[in-house]
Specification:
An 8-stranded antiparallel beta sheet has the order 3-2-4-1-10-9-11-15, with helices on one face. The chain has a 7-stranded antiparallel beta sheet with strand order 5-6-7-8-12-13-14. A 5-stranded parallel beta sheet has the order 19-18-20-21-22, sandwiched between helices. Helix 18 links the parallel strand 25 and strand 26. It is of the alpha/beta class. The model has no long low-confidence stretch (mean pLDDT 94). The protein folds into 3 domains: 245 residues, Glutamine Phosphoribosylpyrophosphate, subunit 1, domain 1 (4-Layer Sandwich), CATH 3.60.20.10; 204 residues, Rossmann fold (3-Layer(aba) Sandwich), CATH 3.40.50; 149 residues, 3-Layer(aba) Sandwich (Rossmann fold), CATH 3.40.50.10490. The chain is 37% helix and 24% strand. Bound molecules: fructose -6-phosphate. The site of fructose -6-phosphate has 14 residues, from helix 10 and helix 17.
Length: 615
């Protein structure tokens, strides 16, 4: 986690780095700092709190002029968020400046060793150990900064994306990565360094994504030299041209990124299926699946690995894939899978789902599955991300940048991709009739329009939110493929409003959780018509008779549930297997409005970060 930004060139570095950090705040926002070299001086400011707090402090304290700078926005791992633990960190001599995203696992042993040789540390961070180790190598070995970084990194265990410069040689920045992302933007006689390309998108479209285990020396006049950290071999870096534009990473008139991203879902889903869903021709075209069709068709089992919301999308896909293809599916938390010696066979297909494509646990699960011979297929949103590159094949969701920390459009576009995969495999295996296949394609094509209708309930949902904003707990219920939607609804409420919420399969209530029901307990029930409608109606009655307050998601024209429920939110009807795509929308809006009414930071909820690159 954490966001890093750097600049070296002929412009003023501070405004570029400061604005870049604000764009990367989704990666961590408990403290921030910037160091600038200008007019022969190394100047810095760092503080607990948001980038905006740091900017105010910095602008009051120092003259930020200078043409080289490094900045950091932090999600604390080692040491509490405070001014001292904030980055950048400095070596004991004050010559070296570092910013770091990741964790150095053997930092304690290294710190003891350095302490015994006279180094001292002011912070509790692993990063301060790293920068002093680099300094120690320079002093002991008499090597240049690039070489010293490389030699140091060969001694450390852990994950990192780092950027370092030496105040005595302010014409170069050395960067390296292992397990945490690092992009280098290439301008004319200027370079931008960042955790992703958003900080420099208005300056250049040309970017190098450093690969794991690479170190690069970025020089103002002489360009970039990339080497492998382990064996010093030179690497010819691949320069990509980005498609990203500024508009995609701005709020576009919405109060929050989360709301913008909720409303973007119809367009995002269309982008996901564009060129893939060819309803008129009766074809699903996906290169990653087409090229590996035999692997999929011969799969005895599909194992889905993911975390959080992506794991919920995986759970929805379990219903879809099993129903349509009859291939058994197991859905695993990546964090559990990687540590439990799972049974993985060579004929298993592993599907890894990740919006960011950087989640450390999902990455580790992929590596384990590959080691054991499985074919791994990635479903990622961020193009060129680590997971996209680590998997054998994959499909991008094309949802566009998701900046709100609470995932919304990533979820529905992941389900869209997984539905396309399920349909494609079902057709190839012959487990779906021609007419059923065609009906699914046509219905999937109408989903964006149905979501547009669901979004029209925004005002009605705001009223329901007002009624329940002070609840201390909330239960979400669904059945079948809407059980994962209940889990996702509960997660959305927890993470942005900090109200305790739980999702359950509706029928599980009577096995324990029903004891929680009283007149204080709001229960959000997904009660749309297809699937297990009658059963859900009975579940609603059970809750009603214990005085629980029912907020029901129903289909237009449903009078039975309307009579039973305290509040209803209508969504258009669709086929059961695709209903999660529509039914999720009111749950996203409900949690959004509650969080806004409670005055919470919707886009940057406490303790969270968008890209979880630590275990
Ligand atoms: C919840 C949320 C997280 C992520 C999880 C996995 O709103 O955003 O639960 O879904 O951290 O992240 P990715 O999909 O980037 O691997």
């Amino acid at each position: 986690m954490c966001g890093i930004v750097g600049y070296i060139g002929n412009r003023e570095a501070y405004p570029i780095v400061a604005k870049g950090l604000q764009r990367l705040e989704y990666r961590g926002y408990d403290s921030a700092g910037i160091a600038i070299y200008g007019n022969g001086e190394l100047k810095y400011s760092k503080t607990k709190g948001k980038v905006a707090d740091m900017r105010r402090k910095l602008e009051a304290e120092i003259d930020p002029s200078g043409t080289i700078a490094l900045g950091h926005t932090r999600w604390a791992t080692h040491g509490v968020p405070n001014d001292i633990n904030s980055h950048p960190h400095f070596s004991n001599s004050g010559n070296l400046v570092i910013i770091h995203n990741g964790i150095i696992e053997n930092y304690d042993a290294l710190k003891k060793e350095l302490t015994s040789r006279g180094y001292s540390f002011s912070s509790d961070t692993d990063t301060e150990v790293l920068v002093n180790l680099i300094e120690d190598v320079i002093v002991k070995e008499g090597v240049k900064l690039g070489k010293a970084v490389q030699m140091t990194l060969n001694q450390v265990v852990g994950a990192y994306a780092i950027a370092v410069f030496d105040r005595r040689k302010p014409n170069e920045i050395v960067v390296a990565r292992l397990g945490s992302p690092l992009a280098i933007g290439i301008g004319k006689d200027e370079y931008f360094i960042a955790s992703d390309a958003s900080p420099f998108i208005e300056y250049t479209n040309n970017v190098i994504y450093l690969e794991d285990g690479e170190v690069a020396v970025v020089r103002k006049e002489k360009g970039i030299k990339v080497r492998k950290i382990e064996d010093d071999t030179m690497v010819d870096p691949y320069v990509q041209e980005l498609q990203l534009n500024l508009e995609q990473i701005e709020k576009g008139g919405f109060d929050h990124f989360m709301l913008k991203e909720i409303f973007e879902q119809p367009a995002a889903i269309r982008d996901t299926y564009r060129g893939r869903l060819l309803a008129d021709e009766g074809i699903v075209s996906m290169a990653g699946v087409d090229d590996n069709l035999e692997r999929f068709l011969n799969a005895k089992r599909i194992i889905v690995v993911a975390c959080g919301t992506s794991w919920h999308a995986g759970l929805v896909s379990e219903y879809l894939i099993e129903e349509l293809t009859r291939i058994p599916v197991e859905v695993e938390y990546a964090s559990e899978f990687r540590y439990r010696n799972p049974i993985i066979n060579r004929d298993d297909v592993v599907i890894a789902i990740s919006q960011s494509g950087e989640t450390a646990d999902t990455m580790a699960a992929i590596k384990l599955a590959k080691e054991r011979g499985a074919f791994v297929f990635g479903v990622c949103n961020v193009v060129g991300s680590s997971i996209a590159r680590e998997t054998h094949a994959g499909a991008y969701t094309h949802a566009g940048p998701e900046i709100g920390v609470a995932s919304t459009k990533a979820f529905t576009t992941q389900i869209t991709i997984l539905a396309l995969i399920a349909l494609k495999l079902a057709k190839a295996k012959g487990t779906i009739s021609k007419s059923d296949f065609q009906m699914h394609l046509q219905e999937l094509e109408t989903i964006p329009q149905k979501i547009e209708v669901a979004l029209e309930s925004n005002d009605a949902i705001r009223e329901v939110a007002f009624r329940y904003k002070d609840a201390r707990n909330c239960i979400y219920l669904g059945r079948g493929c809407n059980f994962p939607v209940a889990l996702e609804g509960a997660l959305k409420l927890k993470e942005i409003s900090y109200i305790h919420a739980e999702g359950y399969p509706a029928a599980e209530m009577k096995h324990g959780p029903i004891a929680l029901i009283d007149e204080e307990m709001p229960v959000v029930v997904i009660a749309t018509r297809k699937g297990h409608y009658e059963k859900v109606v009975s579940n609603i009655q059970e809750i009603k008779s214990r005085k629980g307050k029912i907020i029901a998601i129903i289909n237009e024209g449903d009078t039975s549930v309307r009579e039973l429920a305290d509040h209803v939110i209508e969504v258009p009807e669709t086929m059961e297997s695709l209903s999660p795509l529509v039914n999720t929308i009111p749950l996203q809006l409900l949690s959004y409005h509650i969080a806004v009414m409670l005055n919470k930071n919707v886009d940057q909820p406490r303790n969270l970060a968008k890209s979880v690159t630590v275990e």
